[in-house]
Amino acid sequence: MSDHATYMREALRLAAQGVGQTSPNPAVGALLVRDGQVVGKGFHTWSGVDHAEILALREAGELARGATAYVTLEPCSHEGRTPPCTRALIEAGVAHVVCTVEDPNPLVSGKGFAALREAGITVDLLPEFADEASKINEAFFHFMRTGRPLVMLKSALTLDGKIAAPWDNSGWITSEHARAHVQELRHQFDAILTGIGTLLADDCLLTDRSGLERPRPLLRIVVDSLLRTPVSSKMVRSCQNDVLIATTSAADPERKAILEKAGVQVIAFDGVRGRVSLRKLVAYLASQRYLSLMVEAGSKINWAALEEGIVDKLYFYYAPKILGGLQSLPVAGGIGKMSRAEAIVLKNVKIHPIPPEEFAVEAYVVKA
Length: 368
Fold this sequence. Notes:
Structural class: alpha/beta
């Protein structure tokens, strides 16, 4: 393995430490190397304010002059919460910048590399690391390229695709190990969505229980067209400006006032047949710069999300169990597709083992 590859892998490990802590910014790692020695390193977090390059430069001090900077994403060239990283690299006298991928943010895209080259700094790309670097910032890249949050449908299933039994649903489908991994996933998302049916059945909290730092609270969303959400529910009682109920204009105004008094944000997103428009809800989240949304709901909402075309990827946890029967709920209910030719097609399917007996399937929806 070349020195470039060795140092870039370390920079990517640094970047990964910031995942879930940077939104709406990307997670970035930076490493400064001079004469074969690492003299500075850093990774960005929102609360830490400073970008990865600045932290690495600060640690290196005068040793940054003539050094090579390994950065997992094109250095920014615009003024945001902090001055441009390109300016800091130039002023520090860095001689060489090695990067993985161009920043898709139109405020940066290509401009950072151009500024460095104009200042006489050599810039090289390592395209073999582009996919890994992009995956670390999957939601950020998706948002910058589409203007929409990355929407992931997550579910826990039996091997025959069931998420609930017709009678007793106490206990869990998957193991504690799998459920702990779900918390790690939640930590990576800006918002999480469920339906009123799930809330009434489980009185769920939908909080991020990873214990890791977040740039802002996980926005908890309930799709509730008629505002049946109880004020006594755990969701409402735990609200700290982090609960949104997506409803319709048909909802009772008095119920709306009561929930808003409890600190819940209530917004109507009118769709067809008296339903909440998930497309309008996703557009609203985009306007508020929520880069990612996890759907963790029941059969009806899961199908509605797929039917409206808002889902970009799936993450399904499978337990070694079978429920069978026609009454046990499938992962996606609703009317479904009427022919196999109409089936929603997936791509880039990956299997993630969860020892000892479970596994998760990660896949992306092929968009028409």
